[in-house]
Amino acid sequence: MKPLDFRSDTVTKPTPAMRRAMAEAEVGDDIYGEDSTVRRLEERVAELLGLEAALFVPSGTQANQIAIGLHCRSGDEVLAEAGSHIFHYESGGVSGLWGVQPAPLPGERGLLVPEQVTAAVRKDFISPCSRLLSLENTHNRGGGKVWPLERFRAVVAAGREAGLAIHLDGARLFNAAVASGVPASSWASLTDTTAVCFSKGLGAPVGSAIAGSAAHIREARRLRKRLGGAMRQSGIIAAGALHALEHHLERLAEDHAHARRLAEGLAELPGVTVDPSQVETNMVAADFPLPAGEMVARLEALGILAGPSGAGPRSVRLVTHLDVSAEDVDEALVRIRRSLAG
Ligand SMILES: *Cc1c(COP(=O)(O)O)cnc(C)c1O
């Protein structure tokens, strides 16, 4: 039975062409600024995001943490949606690394409204100083939700009005761009810093970037060193990321079509609740007739890997990616149908 891995879009393996590009990459010591492949990647990212400069970093977590370090001082607070990656999955880095306090705001599938940002900002002298607003597009725990550009603009404007810096966690910003037809730069150019991941839907094995003004990126370079993220001949991995930007951007539309097809198939199964119209990118959250943990175990017995979505006690998340084909989706539906019938 072929294993079908729907846990995350991070599980992809580099394609033969990507491995070739990596093997043949021109490299140098990047701490001396001598890795031309890294430099090309950084220039390409800055251009795609409509920002002045970019910095290659090992992970999206490090890109986000550098943003916290750039914009905040110890004792400040960062406003973000309660389910955001920086609050949920970064091992307390916001507080542990920078002495910054999380100010979680309730969202609607990860999206905020301007009024709640305005109301949450604290600038008095007895509270922590609100310093940064961090937004996430697409929103991971929001099920791959895309920020509509006008709503994003309004929330950013509310943050700016209140004197906040703006960071965008764009781990899946290119999914948002391909799904909506809005260029990634339309969101990113409204921010002070934007982070993107190459190791998610784009299918590179390692790497993320943070982009912003030249001054911010100069400082980001110092913070990357401090966090142990400065690398040497990192052109080897940057070449995978560059290859992904060249060859795997447009194909994200296939992942989105596969996710929609999966949701539509699941919606027809007895006892499964899912609204395919809510599937905007590469994530499906479906309610099954048994607790998520049990359903995940049952799927695993069928050779299908998935995880709980966190959206509810029976909600299971399935993510499509480079290594999941339309046939894999159909095969998964056949197996799930059989198991629910049996
Ligand atoms: C994956 C992810 C990151 C970064 O993850 P790393 O595993 O550290 O690269 C950041 N934000 C979001 C929304 C993510 O999904």
Structural class: alpha/beta
Shape: globular
Q: Which H/E pattern describes the elements?
A: EHHEHEHHEHEHEHHEEHHHEHEEEH
CATH topology of the largest domain: Aspartate Aminotransferase, domain 2
Main features:
342 residues, alpha/beta, Aspartate Aminotransferase, domain 2, Aspartate Aminotransferase, domain 1, seven-stranded mixed β-sheet, three-stranded antiparallel β-sheet, 12 strands, 42% helix, globular, binds pyridoxal-5'-phosphate
Please, could you describe this protein's structure?
The structure is a single chain. This protein has 342 residues and is α/β, with parallel strands linked by helices. It has 2 domains: 234 residues, Aspartate Aminotransferase, domain 2 (3-Layer(aba) Sandwich), CATH 3.40.640.10; 91 residues, Aspartate Aminotransferase, domain 1 (Alpha-Beta Complex), CATH 3.90.1150.10. Helix content is 42%, strand content 16%. It is built from 14 helices and 12 strands. The mean pLDDT is 97. The protein binds pyridoxal-5'-phosphate (PLP). Pyridoxal-5'-phosphate binds next to helix 3.
Describe the protein's topology:
Blueprint: E1 4-5, H1 16-23, H2 36-49, E2 53-57, H3 60-71, E3 76-81, H4 85-88, H5 93-98, E4 101-105, H6 114-120, E5 129-136, H7 149-161, E6 165-170, H8 173-180, H9 184-188, E7 193-197, E8 208-212, H10 214-226, H11 235-247, H12 252-267, E9 283-287, H13 292-301, E10 304-305, E11 307-308, E12 315-319, H14 326-341
Parallel strand pairs: 1-10, 3-4, 3-5, 5-6, 6-7
Antiparallel strand pairs: 2-8, 7-8, 9-12, 11-12
The protein binds pyridoxal-5'-phosphate.
